[in-house]
Amino acid sequence: MATLQSYDLPLKKFVSEEEYLTTTYRPDCDYVDGRLEERNLGERDHAVLQSLLATLFMNNRRIWGVYAATDWRVQVRRSNYRIPDVTVLPIGSTKETVLRQPPLLTIEILSPRDTLKKMAKRCEDYVRFGIPNIWIVDPETRTAWYLTVEGLIPAESGELTVPGTPIRVVLDEVFAELDAV
To answer: Are the C-beta atoms of 107 and 53 separated by less than 8 Å?
Structure first.
């Protein structure tokens, strides 16, 4: 087993799966067919919105029956790993170090350098993996979408929900919290 190392990207672009799983990247990156892919993050609104959403899920974990984690590696297929901004699972579902089963929900937050088209392409891996609920949130335009097998669907009601659960996120409330900090 390789020893833990730390790399600042783009020091290495192609690595083995074993090396990816035993190396600490700062910031962490996706792994797609032997290639490291940087994730756009680090900006204030992205970071604060990620914290707000994860906190909202954790604060409601008993009512909603779920818990949230940020930046958890998800193996979406053989030799492909993605790191959603927020991953939501039913309480007690797994304690895996690397998630290898579809979570209930993944949330991706657009950074200023992201495009909706590029993010949707990234999230296609989640759809193929079988994640039933995928949200994309844009802090700049204050909009959000559901990604389904039919494509991107705007959250025109101003709410994001997970069918069959009590989960309900009111976008105006979340964005008001983002403005308040």
So the answer is: yes
pTM: 0.87
Rounded-to-integer distance, Cα 21 and Cα 136, Å:
26
Identify the pLDDT of residue 12. 52
Strand partners, 153: 146
Could you read off the pLDDT of 125-146 as tens digits, one per residue?
999 999 999 999 999 999 999 9
pLDDT for residue 157 is more than 90: yes
8 Å CB contact between 39 and 50? no
Rg over alpha carbons for the chain, rounded to the nearest Å, is 16
Nearest CA to 69 out of 29, 42, 44, 96 is that of 96
Strand partners, 168: 161
Write the pLDDT tens digit of every residue in 65-91: 999 999 999 999 998 999 999 999 999
Extract the runs of DSSP E, i.e. beta strands, from 12-99: 24-25, 30-32, 35-37, 66-70, 74-77, 80-82, 86-90
Q: Are 141 and 134 in contact (CB under 8 A)?
A: no
3-class DSSP state of 111: coil
Distance, CA of 135 to CA of 145 (rounded, Å): 6
